User: Fold Peptide/nickel transport system substrate-binding protein from Saccharothrix saharensis.
Amino acid sequence: MRHRITLIAVCALSLTGCFAAPAAEQPGGRIKLAMLQPPRSGLTPFSDDAFKLSRWSTAETLVTLDADGNARPGLATGWRRVDDHAWEFTVRGGVTFHDGTALTAASVANTLTRATAASPKPRILDGVELTATARGDAVLVTTGTPDPLVPQRLSSPQLAILAESAYRPDGKVDPVGTGTGPFELVAVDGTTTATLDRYDGYWGPKAAADGIDVSFVPDGTARAAAIRAGEAHIAEAVPVSQAALLDPATVTEVPMPRTNTLYLNTRSGPFQDRGLRAAAREAIDAGEIVRGVYEGRADVAQGLLGPALPWAAAGRTPLTGRAPATDPGGAAITLATFSDRAELPEVASVLQQQLEDAGFTVTQVVREYAHIEQDALAGKFDAFILSRATVLDSGDPVAYVQSDFTCAGSFNLARLCDGDVDAAVRAAAATEAGDQRRAAILAAEAAVLRTDAAIPMLHERVIQGDATSVVDSAKDPRERTLITSATRLR
Assistant:
């Protein structure tokens, strides 16, 4: 581990040690990509690492989503609802995995079955009882309770379909050479690099680029500098402080369904007290954070769901029923966040001052995400600042609210277990897509906000850096796609 940490630090300080020196570029070419976070779970698709596989176009799902969140064909050419509990998906023919085996209904059922047995489960399956059975060229997907969003659920990168050879006897999943996308993952060097080559057997349009050379560079300044120096063609999540230093032609600002939220530990420590949680909420001046830390490149939060979901603001009603604030009286709290997103340590410093001004005594903890997530989930901090995508998985916020705020949620940093919240989330999950579902989602949001277990502060606009030689990289609000078959160098 020490070697890995040292190497990442070297990447941050000496970019030429992480990227190949600039060279004459060939049309198509190999795309050099600087990514924000290194793999946390060995690139298993059952974790958030799945979104790396998706952004590299190496692993694919049965279903995709269009810009409005509607389900569209992927590795499934179509589907139909058999009854309240069952859906049938027709598996696309003529598709091969990168190991040469054929995509079949059996291989799809194998992936989905293994996902349901994974520990921890993929977040998209929180609270879902799901079985998958091969039937000829189709897969029958059955849920324990009626689920109107099964097609959208199966679009989650965490349910990417891999070859049977990916699943090892020890329970680990190896995506190297086992996907179906236009790029084949051929090598991974721990938490430092990954290499992908064009897969000429791809079932769809062949990749225009020859391959992708990925470097994991947690330091945001280093990612931005790599674009300026020509050492990377694409850089994820350029820090706000660096955007002004780049050529405007290389910067794209994308409104994202991402919320910067303060999660308060409701199960242990001072924030078990609702009055102290209310005091923390009243202490926060999000406008100061947006102006001072984000230089105006963010929106002050009115709820958990931001302007990337315009129906949320249109349907939201004034919130009532919150507990009154009580005097903190010097209550000692630990405020934690991670350094991978460059703005978050600055947010922590501003919040520390605001909370201390309100009467709290604050100790701050900042680490790389890979080294703090486990402690955060275990409830070792009183407050945790997280930049969180709210429609990460299904294009629908229910999965996010379910995983983050229900008793059984797998990503419940607030350690919240509230009967009203669970009931509201269950109601939203059971409602058919459309206006009624959106109203139910806002009712669940209100139930969460009423507890003050989570204090949404702002909605981010993620900044992407693209060299002027890059053509057709994706600018995806859901952070699912980045390099596609069409992406290439001039």
The mean pLDDT is 91. DSSP finds 14 helices and 19 strands in the chain. The chain has three domains: 1-58+181-233+467-490, 59-171, 256-461.
